[in-house]
Write a structure and sequence with these properties.
alpha+beta, 3 domains, four-stranded mixed beta sheet, globular, two-stranded antiparallel ribbon, Glutathione_S-Trfase, Glutaredoxin, 11 helices, Glutathione S-transferase Yfyf (Class Pi), Chain A, domain 2, glutathione transferase activity, single chain
Amino acid sequence: MKPEFVKLNPQHVIPTIDDDGFILCESRPIMGYLVSKYAKNDSLYPKDPKKRGIVDQMLYFDAGSLHENMINCYVCILILLLDNNSLNNESHVVTEIKMPIISYETTGSPPCRLVRLAAAALGVTLNLKKISFENLEHLTPEYLKMNPQHMVPTIDDDGFIMCERNIIHVFISRAIITYLANQYGKDDSLYPKDPKKRALVDQRLYFDACTLYKAFIDYYYPIFIYKAPRDPTKYVAIGTALSFLEKFLEGQDYVAGKTMTLADLAIVVTVSTLEVSSYDLSKYKNVIRWFARIKSEAPKYEDNDVGAKVLKQWSEGVMKN
């Protein structure tokens, strides 16, 4: 692979665009950027926060479920059929919330912790409703009416429901936090309106959901839930994802720009989850430096620590039984 391409894109994946020196990878952030900058109207990507929230929800559903299943079923077969060299040349601001948003959640869940962390940074009050999976509260008729897939997190913003539509429930949490930022952000610091800045935040959110957090899920969840043997290949994937993050943070204080954004909050939840899962982060010096910064800057970060410890206790309890 050519060094100049790796320099542009440390993850060395396609598509990657160069818009007069602005480099962006990952197809969905690219689409959002192109529409935000060049579209004649907002029909493809509505500016209305609720309409955009639904579009984002479906984009994350596609990335995390539909597209992933297609990849698993077909792409490996297609790659074998292709010549290995065939690709080588190739604003809406609301200053006051009328009623607290209801957030249905569990304390230790990383996606639920992200929603709480983002809400705190945005100054949004959440009415937290704990859902007990042990007591089957996620299967009550009332909850199933809101969320047929009976997952968390789910939010109810005065009748506007955003709920999980993917078994890997990290994806909806990203749609929820961008909706909250669009609807209730007092400014755009956490989720910039500038198309280039927002596209970079979106790219990092997709990196977390589809690469870093997915690597955590793929390795740890079979161990936690099914007591499966440890898979060395999946363990290596975590290190690969962290190496990308290490590269992103070279000479940078934040993962997507000059200030803390939603991308930092999403990724810090994943990194803190790796930490309590006893993953050794010591060789990732940039990540450790950034991790300490976000811990000190993110409002109410201690709530994330509490949730991470709950997850740790749960996983240890499961492993003992």
